[in-house]
Amino acid sequence: MINAERSPTFYRFDSTEQLQVWRAMDAADEEPVVIYHSHTATEAYPSRTDVAYASEPNAHYVLVSTRDPQEYELRSYSIVDGVVTEEPVEVVESYMFAHTGSDDIPDRG
Ligand SMILES: [Zn+2]
C-alpha cells in the first residue's frame, strides 16, 4: 500500500517510491484498487486537491479523518472526471466472514 504524507490540505507521494510502485503494478498488469490517505484536521471527504489529482476511475479513494481522536471516521469514494460519489463501507469482523457463509470457520493457518 502507498503511504501518503499526512497533511490537512495536501498530500504527495515519495516520487521515487511512487514510480516504483506504479511500474511494478504495470509490469504485473495490475491496477490500484484502494488509494487511501488521512485528513488530520478536516472531515473524511475529498478536498479540491484530492479530486484534481484523482486519476484512477476504477479505484476506491478511502479517506480517514483523525481530526477527532474519539470519533471513527472512514469513508470511501469513487472520483471520476471530477465527480465525487460516496461508496458504502461495511465494517466486518473478518474479511473471510464477509465473503463466505456464516457457518464457515475462520482460517487460522
Ligand atoms: Zn485529502
UniProtKB/TrEMBL annotation:
UniProt keyword Transport present: no
Single GO MF descriptor: metalloexopeptidase activity
Limits of the MPN domain: 1-83
InterPro entries: JAB_dom_prok, MPN, VirAsm_ModProt
Domain of life: Bacteria
Cellular-component GO terms for this entry: proteasome complex
The keyword Protease appears for this protein: yes
Keywords: Hydrolase, Metal-binding, Metalloprotease, Protease, Proteasome, Zinc
Record GO biological process: proteolysis
Full protein name: Proteasome lid subunit RPN8/RPN11
Organism: Actinopolyspora biskrensis
